[in-house]
Amino acid sequence: MTAAPEGRTSAVSVWRRQIELPRYLRKVRGSTQLASELSSVCGQLGFSRPLLLSGPTVTMELARELAPVLGGAAEPVRVGDNTQAEVDTIAGGDAIGEADVLVAVGGGRTIDVAKAVCEAVDLPVISVPTQLTADGIASPVSVIRSGSGQIESRRARLPIGVVVDLEFVGRSSPERVRAGLGDLLANRSAVLDWRLAEAAGADTADDFAALLAESASELVYGTDVSSLAAGEPSGALLERLLDGLVLSGLAMEIAGSSRPCSGSEHLVSHAIDRLYPGTAQHGEQVAFGSVLCARLQGEDWRQLRQFLLDAGMERSATGLGLGQERILAALGAAPTTRPGRYTVLDELDLDDAALGRLVGELLTPAS
User: Fold this and answer.
1) Taken in order 191, 195, 197, 203, is the CA torsion positive or negative?
2) What pLDDT sits at residue 310?
3) Residue 215 φ then ψ, to 5°
4) pLDDT surpasses 80 at 230
5) Which of 64, 193, 290, 315 is the most buried (most CB within 10 A)?
6) Can you tell me the mean pLDDT for 348-367?
7) C-alpha–C-alpha distance, residues 222 and 299, integer Å
8) What is the pLDDT confidence band of residue 1, given thresholds at 50, 70 and 90?
9) Is a pLDDT exceeding 90 seen at residue 6?
10) Tens digit of pLDDT for each residue in 82-122?
11) pTM, whole model, 2 decimals?
């Protein structure tokens, strides 16, 4: 390979980028099709020694059903929680030494641990999400609890493939689907914050990552969500949600960070976790954060709130039951949850009374 001319190294590093991308997104119906498709994907990628990871309950049953078909280790590895100790235990275990790919069967915690393990031991991972609660199913980010108890978002292995049984996903609770919807809707707020950060000289936005994140959000924003409000999300909604969450993961890989999908609305959610743990699911909190931060960004927050109401997400649309005082406290604490991530919260020029009126406006029932 010819060396770059002297003086051009920095320029080349700007215009020539290397990123990883998944190769497969397969959607099936039923465990028989799931096993067949997973076996096909592993074969096409040249994997012959898969190790399955799963959660401890119904996902373990599914993983045990898949294991003999894939021809790997007979007993899947159980993931208890998304902690650094769990990552270290699996990464240092005997089973992983025999594997040439990890297949993560489960929810967000299982997939996060699998991606973190694969980053540590340099193995590929195939994601088999059993619920659509967040964009981690195909992202290069894992949310892991450190030894000190702090939740950290860190670089992780991007799945080489995503294989989804839409029937299995469809049996998850409507609350799980609403959480995924809330996480995806956050992209609009996140991209606006990214643009603000660029204008302030605090970051550099990637136009294509931003476009992908916004397009992912639009997939569901223009969809009829009445079936979700009724407690039985339609197949069409589940497919659009899945596609949007996967595209969000690709946007993060292109950006090299979570910026296109995580802005002020996520900081608000992190602050709620810190101050009032157990308030709601992550996606529900992010959805409320999106309404709040859309108001701060000067966007059409009423339209977003109505969309949440149409989806049956009344708590997210009306403040999660926190009340004005607690919401103001979360707003104040939000920037400290991720120092250095510049958002609209860094540009607030409102006194406490003005912020109180703004929050009170959000909590006023829609007419």
Assistant:
1) positive
2) 96
3) -65, -35
4) yes
5) 290
6) 86
7) 17
8) very low
9) no
10) 999 999 999 999 889 889 999 999 999 999 999 999 999 99
11) 0.91
What are the CA-CA distances from residue 82 to residues 69, 92, 106, 115 (Å)?
Answer: 27, 16, 12, 11
If you average pLDDT over every residue of the chain, what do you get?
A: 91
Structure tokens at 231: 């407690």
Q: Determine the average pLDDT of the residues in 64-81.
A: 87
Output the pLDDT for position 2. 42
C-alpha span between 194 and 187 (Å, rounded): 10
Predicted pLDDT at 195: 98
Q: Nearest 5 degrees, angle CA 278-CA 283-CA 286?
A: 90
Residue 296 CA to residue 355 CA, distance in Å, equals 10
Angle between helices 174-199 and 235-255 (to 10 degrees): 30
HSE of 240 in the Cβ direction (CA atoms, 13 Å)? Answer: 18
CA-wise closest residue to 106 among 56, 171, 35, 34:
56
